[in-house]
Design brief:
The complex is a heterotrimer of chains A (296), B (656) and C (175).
Chain A (H helix, E strand, L loop, with lengths): L7 E5 L4 H4 L2 H13 L2 E5 L15 H17 L4 E2 L3 H16 L1 H11 L12 E2 L1 H9 L1 H7 L8 E4 L22 H8 L3 E2 L18 H17 L4 E4 L2 H9 L1 H7 L8 E3 H8 L25
Parallel strand pairs in A: 1-2, 1-3, 3-4, 5-6, 5-7, 7-8
Chain B lengths: L4 E6 L11 H9 L4 E7 L5 H14 L3 E6 L2 H15 L6 E5 L1 H5 L5 H21 L6 E4 L3 E5 L3 H12 L3 E5 L7 H5 L2 E2 L4 E2 H14 L3 E4 L2 E9 L2 E8 L14 H5 L6 E2 L8 E2 L2 E2 L11 E2 L5 H5 L7 H5 L12 E7 L1 E4 L3 E3 L16 E3 H8 L20 E8 L14 H16 L4 E6 L9 H9 L4 E4 L5 E3 L4 E7 L4 E7 L1 E6 L1 E3 L3 H7 L27 E3 L9 H19 L3 E4 L4 E3 L9 H5 L5 E5 L5 E5 L9 H5 L5 E3 L4 H11 L1
Chain C lengths: L3 E2 L4 E2 L2 H15 L11 H5 L3 H4 L3 H10 L2 H5 L12 H5 L6 H14 L8 H11 L8 E2 L5 E2 L15 H11 L5
Classes of the chains: A alpha/beta (296), B alpha/beta (656), C mainly alpha (175).
Amino acid sequence: MKAEKKEKKYALYPGCIMPTEQYAYELSLREILPKLDIKIIDLEGFSCCSEPIKSVNQMLTLALSARNIAIAEKEKLDIFAPCPMCHLALSDCKKVLDSNPEMKEKVNNYLKEEGLKYTGNSDIISILDLLHDIIGIEKIKKQVKKPLNEIKIATHYGCHLIRPSELGRPDDSENPQKIENILKAIGAKTEYYPEKLDCCGALLSANLPDSALTKTGQKLKSVQELGFDAFVDTCPWCHRQYDARQEKAGSIIAAKLQVPVFYLTQLLGISFGISEEKLGLNLNQSPTETIKGEKP
Amino acid sequence: MSNKIGVFVCHCGINISSTVDIKKLVEYAKKLDGVIVSKEYKYMCSDVGANLIKDTIKKNKLDGVVIACCSPRMHEHTFQGVVEDGGVNAFNLEIANIREQCSWAHENKEDATTKAKALLRGAVAKAKLLEPLQTSTIKVTPKAVVVGGGISGIQSALDLAEEGHKVYLIEKTPSLGGRMAQLDKTFPTLDCSGCILTPKMMEIANHPNIELLTYSEIKNVEGSIGNYTIKVNKKARFVDIDKCTGCGDCVTACRLKDRITSEFDEGIGKRSAIYMPFPQAVPLKCTIDKDTCLMLTRGKCGTGPLCVDACEANAINFKQKDEEIELKAGAIVVATGYDLINPDSLYEYGYNNSKDVITTMQMERLINSSGPTKGEILKPSDGKKPKSITYILCVGSRDETECTWCCRIGCMSALKHVYLLKEKLGDEVEINICYTDIRSFGKGYEEFYHKIRGMKTNFFRGRPSEVKTNKDCLTIDIFDTTTNKLFEIKSDLVVLVPALIPRTDTADFARKLHISQGPDGFLLEAHPKLKPVDTFTGGVFIAGCCQAPKDIQDSVAQASGAAARAANILSKKELEAEPLVSYVDEDLCSGCATCISICPYSAIELIKEENGKSHAKVNEALCMGCGSCVGACPSGAMQQKGFKDKQLIPMIDETI
Amino acid sequence: MTITDLTSMGKSQTEIRKEINERLKKLQNEISDYCYQCAKCTSGCEAHKLLELEPHKIVALTKRGLIDEMINSDVIWTCMSCFKCRERCPQKVAPVEILFALKNMAVASGKQIPGNYTAMLQSVLSIGLLQDIKNVTTKNNKSINRNDLNLPEISKPTDPTKFQTILSKLAVEKI
């Protein structure tokens, strides 16, 4: 009798920002997922999900999201979308097309050109679904070699990961706790703070970049004033605002911001004992070196 | 058997005549076998219509009547009276529903008329085979059961008792009083709630016609109008109420004093395991909570139960058992009240994150001088006096994702609190009210709102999106549509006005009493306008908030209404029983008892015969004529008078 | 019979309002008519504090059919799509979705697309992604990009011509 395969396979849908700019996210998740028995399959032909340009043309977003799902469906794979904005685009598209056969036919008419067809057979998984529900806390705990020394971390879920709840999102929209659960499993401390559900402002950076940075700066300022040791996020857009643009945000709101900002996958990697370079920690722009894992 | 049938077709104004061709129908009727006369009129249910029917019966010596009109649920009873007056037995009447089942359901005039003809054909075919029936009578048990000891139940019980009927008042908690006992003052008169309630509670306790059963719950209800058998579980208090003097020494002595969350204080106060719900409780007896008492849950309480030592009357009895009681009654009034929504389902308002976010009922307990803070308004987090209090109305009400209905009392409760809080904390306390509408619809309500507007209250017309818990205060952002500005309110205390919801065990309870719930979960009235206290089950009436959210005066009015409806039954020695009951052909019956397992009214029993066989027998007093047994009977032995197979089958054949 | 807004002399555009409602129904199964102006959306709007966006007003103007006024304004482009309004509305109205419809209509009617959107759109047209591979600075002040890292080739549409054909057709397609 064949032994049951422990490894789960997913087609990685990388989106746009992660592969072209937020390299640390991709590096860190490619490092930790094999340790948790997850195999990532890279497919050719993906394009932007178009959620960020939904304001310009929503039909485009619908069709391009369907196109990307169809590519994975062709290989009979479920899709893992690490970027919450992509995850929302794909999930929303799936809901609309699965419940509206007229729309589905309309969209498939366009996909025909590239020999693609949306069928609705693939599931769309987010980073939280993967880490918390599919892999599970127990498995994560087993990999922890250097617990995070009780550092107090402010969790940032962002907007697209938890809203709108009627689509079925990976965590509760008013009291999300999955990142807290994962952080506890790797030895960190978490705490409620009033700005927890506030938006990073990223989508405004297309036309109102200073306003976007004001939003970013205000949240970081509160986190800093409340005495948190670090800040964690799971979205390339949020991370770009909080990490890469922290200094600029600080100058817009006239405050000195010194908040270490990590991807959740990076923190996991640190606790698993993986080297800083492999996790892309040298690419974080915020002062992440002030946090050390447990002394060996 | 009729062969001189008169057909009467009603226009129902234009309700029927605009879609069904009445003239064609009347002509068609004349040609049907058995019909000797056919007439029409605009409103058959009017005096003129009734007289037309009666005169036609007398003139043509009819022995059967078919009326083609609206649903029998509307006027069958009326028309039965009319034909009896004319000289035809009420059960030789058949109604063809050509309104709800025809003209109201279709648009095409030709098709609708064809269908009406088919319905008429069937009705006539059945009418030919109907037999005259006599109504029987059922004896009425001249006692009432009132379920629920809040103000509605109290009012109904007193009204019925004053009329001379014996009443059993059953209350689930250890004392009478319900929600009104939890309140401090009532709007708009600002009467002290306890002061106007307790005299009524005393009246109940002292009334010779009322037997009070507190700490008791309904287990089972059987029977039908005029003859209900109700099994009640009298829960064990573990205190002998004949000995207990209500002195309260045991409460002070209890090892778990102030450790258990008090339900009466809505979770904002604490009590002991042995407790008196509130100082004016009726009966004034202590009760032991079997889920928290150490003796009852673990078998030991330290070196010995302290309550027993403290009790001079020796009233504590840990061996007491629940008691099952059987009551007989002719009518039941249900007045079981309401629950409040758990504000956690609107998590954004911070009820879970901060001790200083409370509900109106919790604030009411703080204001009440017999509450957990003895009437002092103190922040639950640090016991200090609040300088600023913000009310958020409509939490969970008028909400498509929670309760779609308006809670009806929220606006007035909040306004009442403004008055009481200014009285207790002084004029300088800042009170903010965040409202969507102020519904001050009742007598004296608008005048009360006027008074509060003159009391330096900050009204914000808008709804906050969230309540943020900061280290030293609560922060609320609210957009005020009157000034079109966004305000940030920093407040010490936030009070949420929650939606009113049906009691959480309503589904179970409704099933026990054979009554229905509406789509919102509240108990369903027979007609929202004309029968607000009746249910669809004969003999069971509803009053107060168990039917829908309402204030005290409407509850009391409804309670008196329900009592009057119940007295309607109890004041009669006998009731007319509808003869459309089932009966068994004993020769055909094999005793399989399928009907017995199906009958929702437990109206059928199995009779053993001498030769070892058995057959079913219907108790006509209990049978409600639902027909389920007829459908279930595999041999056709069970038939229903007025709906026999040999009457229905020709009807079906003719219709199609 | 007509209804005229005397402030702007704008007339009620009931056809367009119907169109918006139909589009919302197709995409989420809810329409905008049930709003009772409680303003919970605006109280919690992430954009309102900085930028004067009032989601409840957008819904009210839509109900009134004064669509042109909004399409020609800048305020509709201040929404940051945080979805809090849709999440918390007690009547299941989604101002954020109405705003997407209005923005789409503004673009379709030829209004200039603000900010970086044009650039992002152009990029998607040519390489299938919002932006091309960027250089970033490491903590050691080195400038690197994806090609310097141990990562697989970036995923892009395999046949750019076919991809662009689809996009140009989609650009004029209505929901």
